[in-house]
Amino acid sequence: MNPNKIMKLAVANKLIIPAFNIPHLPMLKPVVQAVVDEDSVAMIQVARLEWEKFESRSLEAVAEEYFRHYEPEHTMLHLDHVPVIDEDNLRVFYLPIIERALKAGYQSVMVDASRLPLDENINATYNVSELAHDAGAACEAELGSVAGHESGGIGMSYEELFSTKKGFTDFKEAKRFAAESGCDWLSVAAGSVHGAIAEHTRSQKKPEARLDVGHIATLSDVTGGMPLVLHGGSGIRREYILAAIEAGVAKINVGTEIRQVYEFALADKPGNIAYAQDKVYLRVRQIIKEFLGVNGSRKILNVN
């Protein structure tokens, strides 16, 4: 599948492509199987922090596992968050990571330069877009600040974050970014938060987040209908997700929701990987069918 084409079809059909993160390598097989069994279309993805701070080992290990189990009519392989400045405020040599991913067969890649000033974010994203497009892949970028990965969490109450719109993607910046960065789709901030990744907080429940759907609709308008991405998708009430799809969101990242299912299952039955995999499989099917309502999306997206 061509992920750029699929994302545009998702926007046109008011559908959303779930993108499931793989922080633990054994999660990949049940996620793919759940997508296939729901006759859906989804991305399988891994972020840099998931091989640095969890147990996905490396982007190459995830690609190798993916190509053992993938179904080309149902799944695509995406490289999630490769930051230019990471959650620990350290500079990252991001271009070699992108090059490794493209060599390993990733069909789309994400650079996150959102912690940089706008001009630098545009330049970094443009460099990655050029690399990706030369390899026949798509590029995702981020503008605004989806908080939560930092060691201190979001740094305020969720209600304060939402009411002040701290970190929300700016409309004027989004218009310029879409015109100059070369990216194919854009992760925006409009109320969602990432799950905590610090060792002492990663098992905690995420705050129940809301979305400013009007903000998302305006971002879709100023970017010329560019497919928008929602990071921090776990923990948002269903009615907000459905409204965001109508407003132009075409991809939603699901990480904490299935990671904790896997980890809690192993805590319940230590060493029983098959038991944990089964729990992940059932939860992914539930997310696809009952929460997002995208079971059967393969037919709608004309994937043959």
Question: Descriptors for this entry?
Answer:
8-stranded parallel β-barrel; TIM Barrel; alpha/beta; 304 residues; globular
Q: Quick recap of the structure?
A:
With 304 residues, the protein is α/β, with parallel strands linked by helices. The chain has 13 helices and eight strands. The protein has a single domain, classed as TIM Barrel, CATH 3.20.20.70.
The count of DSSP E runs of length 2 or more, i.e. the number of strands, is 8
User: SSE order, as H and E?
Assistant: HEHEHHEHEHEHHEHEHEHHH
Q: Order of strands side by side in the largest beta sheet?
A: 1-2-3-4-5-6-7-8
* CATH superfamily membership: Aldolase class I
Distance between the termini: 9 Å
Helix fraction?
Answer: 40-55%
Strand content: 5-15%
- What would you call the shape? globular
Mean pLDDT: 90
CATH class: Alpha Beta
Largest sheet: 8 strands, parallel, barrel
Structure description:
This protein has 304 residues and is of the alpha/beta class. The protein has a single domain (3-294), classed as Aldolase class I (TIM Barrel, Alpha-Beta Barrel). The protein is 45% helix and 14% strand. It has helices at residues 3-12, 28-37, 48-52, 59-69, 94-104, 118-134, 158-164, 171-180, 213-222, 238-247, 256-268, 273-291, 297-300; strands spanning 17-21, 42-46, 75-83, 108-112, 138-143, 185-188, 228-230, 249-254. The chain has an 8-stranded parallel β-barrel with strand order 1-2-3-4-5-6-7-8, surrounded by 9 helices. Helix 5 (94-104) packs parallel to helix 6. The termini are close together.
